[in-house]
Specification:
By secondary structure, this protein is mainly alpha-helical. The chain has helices spanning about 5-25, 30-35, 40-65, 75-95, 105-115, 130-145, 150-155, 160-170, 180-210, 215-230, 245-260, 265-270, 275-280, 280-305, 310-325, 335-355, 370-385, 410-435, 440-450, 465-480, 485-500; strands at about 395-400, 400-405. Strand 1 (about 395-400) and strand 2 (about 400-405) form a beta hairpin.
Length: about 500
Amino acid sequence: MIPRPRLPDFKNIAYYSGKIVFGVGILMIIPLITALIFKEWSPALDFAIGMFTCFTIGLLFQIFFYSERDLSWLQGLVVASFSWLLAMMLGAIPHYLSGHFGSFLDACFDLMSGYTTTGLYLLQDLDHISCALNMWRHLLTYAGGQGIIVIALTFLVKGTGGAFKMYVAEGKEEKLLPNIIQTARAIWLISLSYLGVGSLALWIIAVHEGMSITKGFLHGVWVFMGAWSTGGFAPQSFNIIYYHSFLFEMVTVVCFIIGSFNFALHWAIWTGNKKELYRNIEIVSFCVTITIALVTTSIGLMRLGVYPDLMAIFRKGFYQIASGHTTTGFMTIQSRTFVRQWGEMAMLGVAFAMAIGASACSTAGGFKGLRMGIVFKTLIQDIKKMLSPETAVVVEKFHHIKDMVLTEKHIRGATLIIILYIAAYALATIVGVYFGYPFIEALFDGVSAGSNTGLSCGVTSPSMPALMKITYILVMWMGRLEFMSIFALIGFIIAAVRGK
């Protein structure tokens, strides 16, 4: 039982939450500068108001709840889950003031979708929003992919044990370097390096396809942010279809597949361990499951005769499967095409890919390849035990950055999280069915929300019932933080109300 929280506990949580809110205000400087450059005065005012609010609340929390105490594990978990909700509501201020949202709830939906790198959106008239708002949308996914806690650790928090607890609470466990602050900065070094290279490549392609230099630059940066962070937000309502470029599609595929890799894997390769790329259990698991999903989807498409030849099936099928499996959410078909042309079998193939997701400690969502690999290794171990003499000791190993012996702790942890993800998918699906959506459509968008993917068959829209929007916000939040910090927040609240 969690003991009843005392005043110092609340002060500690509020103090560190204030630092994270202050970090959100710092992020708003970039869209504010964008608005000033393009003389978008109304959006500039929106972001000035949002930034002022974040700075004010962040500073007030740090001044009035100042604490030098280190965070406990429980406090670290609560800070992570609570600060994400606070950052959602404060970050939604410029969104709501833009006039492109029917309600503040819709604005909060898009903020949570951005932070969690989901990519579902309720924004209206996307094709005519300001450059500043588009910059903010894509910056949300880029920053959220690294983690807003990682931002705070990089610039605002000292390297204490509490810093590591907040880092773990955000769904990351692996330390690239011995010091957690150095790990956070290494994550940003990796991301910013790819940002430069990927944005340049997409910029060149966009200009080659006929865009102006300025527009091509913005679209190159925005699309890369959406791809690398596996976020799925696109600058135009037609998503990647807008560019009518096979080369553009292929570069985005490379960007979001690389972006879905574990940051520890990136660091291992950067530091010279090239063999890790094909030895790592997550990469092996990814290759197996994406093949299963692609074959399932292709069979469904061939059975219905949707496309004229195998090349067309591969081009359309592989892009959507890869986008779903990496939980990116970019599309080269329109949303309703899933329902009107692809059929249930192909949609199930995509939903399977979305549910699994990509790598742990990455920008992606879903079960994660590491957990799927552990479940598969557990199956192999059980088969070996059945075929071995009763006195034999069967030891199963897997490779993830280093060789590891499969233990009960690995199995229990992987199984528990997978069950929780399935429960989140089921919750979103049941709510969708309750409000009258066909089962396969409710399942598709429900899994997309819970796995932080962003592919949609048309269910997600501003006309959704409010309860359904709230449900999607909750499953996006739970899926991104991988449940434990949310349970800690719930337990903390219950203990505060009823504890002794």
